[in-house]
């Protein structure tokens, strides 16, 4: 069935390093992808999105890469800061299924000072 | 500009009881989606409301129902609560646009504990 998953459940980096969080999806019909950040006790916070007609999109300190050939999505965070510590989820949407978002299990990012 | 708000923040119920959770969407948004997030997992889609009607539904039993009001706010009702209903319930709002790919913004959630 359709699924969105993450390669690594946890990621630990040093402050100032770059972080890369990966995500795999299985449905080639997916046409919209979003990365969310969820801090403890809070709801998911929108970080960046990308549509299937794009390969790369940049935001402030974040870059999302989409490889449709291997159905892979990644989130790159530059100069990772302690405030970036959180669980990161990728989510996909398939246009034919309406506005439903399908989330992966999440990656816990820990930034060490 | 107010973001998505949810009430209550926490709730404790016992098995068999009924619960109502509330959501006010972000200003300017007209669509509300509800998700259930079990501990350590990603959110799971319950259903979505647009124009006061349930537009789409995930794989949840009929015990889960909802409503959207003319001011776009929404309620999630769960009947005959089970222990497994304990979770964080998230509301997300968005704006219906041409092409349909609107961004969903989440509220802080309601933490429900069923004893």
Relevant terms:
heterodimer; A: mainly beta; six-stranded mixed β-sheet; five-stranded antiparallel β-sheet; 11 strands; globular; B: 115 residues; mainly beta; seven-stranded mixed β-sheet; four-stranded antiparallel β-sheet; 0% helix; 50% strand
Beta-strand share of residues of chain B: over 45%
Radius of gyration of chain A: 13 Å
Biggest beta sheet attributes of chain A: 6 strands, mixed
The biggest sheet of chain B, with number of strands, parallel, antiparallel or mixed sense and barrel status, is:
7 strands, mixed
Short overview:
The complex is a heterodimer of chains A (113) and B (115). Chain A is mainly β and 113 residues long. Chain A has strands spanning 4-5, 10-14, 19-25, 32-38, 45-51, 56-58, 62-67, 72-77, 86-93, 101-103, 107-112.
Give the helices and strands, then pairings:
The complex is a heterodimer of chains A (113) and B (115).
Chain A: E1 4-5, E2 10-14, E3 19-25, E4 32-38, E5 45-51, E6 56-58, E7 62-67, E8 72-77, E9 86-93, E10 101-103, E11 107-112
Parallel strand pairs in A: 2-11
Antiparallel strand pairs in A: 1-3, 3-8, 4-5, 4-9, 6-7, 7-8, 9-10, 9-11
Chain B: E1 5-7, E2 10-13, E3 19-24, E4 31-37, E5 44-50, E6 53-57, E7 64-68, E8 74-78, E9 87-94, E10 105-106, E11 110-114
Parallel strand pairs in B: 2-11
Antiparallel strand pairs in B: 1-3, 3-8, 4-5, 4-9, 5-6, 7-8, 9-10, 9-11
